[in-house]
Amino acid sequence: MEKLIDTHGQSFYYATLEGFVDNIGDKNKCAIILAHDDWSVFFDKASHLLGESINQVIVIGKNVNQLHAKTKDIRNVFIISAISLKDATQIALNSSSFSKNVVYISSISSGQSISDLLNLIIE
User: Fold this and answer.
1) How open is the CA angle 62-65-69, to the nearest 5 degrees?
2) Which end of the chain is more exposed for a tag (fewer CB within 10 A), N or C?
3) What is this structure's pTM?
4) Exposed/middle/buried for 99, CB within 10 Å: 0-12, 13-18, 19+?
5) In this predicted model, what pLDDT tens digit does every residue of 72-103 receive, in sequence order?
6) How far apart are CA 95 and CA 33, in angstroms?
7) For the chain, how many helices (H) and strands (E)?
8) Quick one: pLDDT at residue 101?
9) What CATH number corresponds to the domain at position 7?
């Protein structure tokens, strides 16, 4: 997990799916941002963290109804959709009192996506 920036009382990180599960450590009550296509793999590897270390999931996609069905019995986690990475980042920034740590999780390790995320946070 790579720390990107501290801003407005929040810390933003980037991680691959595997790196996140292995390194969540003390990042309690964090928000995660991930693409809808990564949800199934994430859920298989990290569903035990929902409601514990993770209290907010921001999914980039049009509809999270299927995700709500999978998580209906999990308490203390808020799942919301965003239509773009920019919107997801804005939701995370507006939720600073709710989540002090925000982790952008991707199945693809890409320097470009890290750069894009940093630019969105700084805007």
Assistant:
1) 150
2) C
3) 0.83
4) buried
5) 778 888 888 899 888 998 999 898 888 899 99
6) 12
7) 5, 6
8) 92
9) 3.90.190.20
Contact 72/104 with Cβ under 8 angstroms? no
- Torsional class of 31: left (φ above 0), alpha (ψ -120 to 50), beta (otherwise): beta
**Calpha distance 19→24 (Å, rounded):** 8
Q: Are 74 and 50 in contact (CB under 8 A)?
A: yes
Neighbours of 82 (CB within 10 A): 19
Contact 10, 22 (CB under 8 A): no
Q: Which domain holds residue 92?
A: 2-122
* Identity of the residue numbered 60: I
Q: How many C-beta atoms surround the C-beta of residue 108 within 10 A?
A: 10
Token readout for 102 is: 């925000």
Are 79 and 64 contacting, i.e. CB atoms less than 8 angstroms apart? Answer: yes
Contact 93, 9 (CB under 8 A): no
**Residue type for position 20:** F
Distances in Å between the Cα of 121 and the Cα atoms of 2, 7, 83, 108 are 15, 8, 16, 20
Number of domain units in the chain: 1
